[in-house]
Amino acid sequence: MVDSAANSTVDSTVDSAVDSASKMKIMIVAGEASGDKHGARLFGALRSLRPDIEWEAFGSGGDEMRSAGIETLVDIRELAIMGIIEIVRALPTFLRVFRELRRAARERQPQLVILVDWPEFNLKLAKRLRRDGHRVVYYISPQVWAWRTYRIRGIRRNVARMLVILPFEKEFYESRGVEVDYVGHPLLDSVRVTATRDQFCQRHGLDPSQRLIALLPGSRHSELSHILPPLLETVERLRRQHPEWQCLLPLARTLARDEIPATPGLTIVEGETYNALAAADLVVVASGTATLETAIVGTPMIVVYRASSLNWQILHPLIRVPHVGLPNLIAGRAIVPELLQDEMNPARLTDEITGLLADPARLATMRAELAEVRTRLGEANASGRAAQRILSMLET
Q1: pLDDT tens per residue across span 5-30
Q2: CB atoms within 10 A of CB 19
Q3: What is the side-by-side strand order in the sheet with 338-340?
């Protein structure tokens, strides 16, 4: 749980923070859809806490950050790239963006730079901006506790304060001499179910009396190319074995419907991801933030991941944790199955799905363990607590 004593201390500090200021200039840098959402919520919380201040915010983001009032010098749609090969190909774009953001910081001199997730880019930017004399706070930690732990040295040197969202991250950073606050997870503020299973099924022509299996192949195009094909073949296998079962794919905002091949037995759902997760009996979800969204909803899941052979050969030896799924990492044990790379094949996945759905006791145990994960994430209002810490930094 989030430290309530620390909260009260920060609350009392915020009342006096930046009292003498009439204008505050900050830079916020996000590079992915999730970071765009978190950056927008963070800036909204800052404005709500101190509406008397004239805020000027600029940086890198997308539609949500623009709607929140942040000037986006760089649009994240040109930056949503994943994988070693894809990043190498896009290197000229990243270099241009890097120089543009560094130049903006130098010319506009923000009182604070807030980097949101996106570690492959933001850790390099933190190093350069710190050398340029800027103070950097990092919101949503890179997974240095999982792989490439050596990056902690650069974080300790270049980041004034980490604002972390997973309960075990605070101790990890404190033990390595990094200034850190645990603010709770921002997904607790955004994951909302607004329809019952019956309502959801009626809207999408589904039968609530039959099994529902939700498929989340990821939000990046590079993920889609490796993860979606075996998922679609799994749908075909399930349809042959259990024609009464129903598969649905909640479409990520970053993807278009025509990117999903028409597949018999698969219903595509737009704009209702959380309702789809809640209605499903089981979710097959690509490793990443969506696994935690599924855990907060509380639906049993299978975590999957597949990359190109070259990317996997490069990255897999660097992983230093026994699990990759966030629910398993937070629980400290394997509470949901993980099928990675070669194990993520249609035959194995079909067997795992049918085995789970035939075992009500295992599904019930998984739901109970996911509820414990939800409790460990602490209380809602992570954006508000992060904004309070940032305000306290702005007064110094």
Answers
A1: 444 444 544 444 455 458 999 999 99
A2: 10
A3: 266-270, 246-251, 212-216, 282-286, 301-305, 338-340
* pLDDT (tens digit per residue) in 52-89: 999 999 999 999 999 999 999 999 877 755 544 455 56
Q: Comparing C-alpha atoms, which of 69, 58, 67 is closest to residue 30?
A: 58
The token pair that represents 215 in the structure block:
């498929």
Same fold, 4-185+378-394 and 197-376: yes
Contacts of 15 (CB under 8 A, 6+ apart): none
Give the CB-side neighbour count of residue 60, counting CA atoms within 13 A: 33
Where residue 147 falls (left for φ over 0; alpha for ψ -120 to 50; beta otherwise) is beta
For the chain, give every domain's residue range.
4-185+378-394, 197-376
> DSSP secondary-structure letter at 160?
S
Does domain 197-376 bear CATH number 3.30.300.30?
no
CB-based contact 62:39 (threshold 8 Å): no
Structure tokens at 51: 């509406």
Give the pLDDT of residue 8. Answer: 45
Q: Which of 299, 290, 365, 379 is nearest to 333 (CA)?
A: 365
Cβ neighbours of 159 (radius 10 Å): 25
* CATH class of domain segment(s) 4-185+378-394: alpha beta
Phi and psi, residue 51, nearest 5°: -70, -15
DSSP string, 274-316: HHHHHH-SEEEEESSHHHHHHHHHT--EEEEE---HHHHHHHG
Interatomic CA distance for residues 233 and 151, integer angstroms: 39
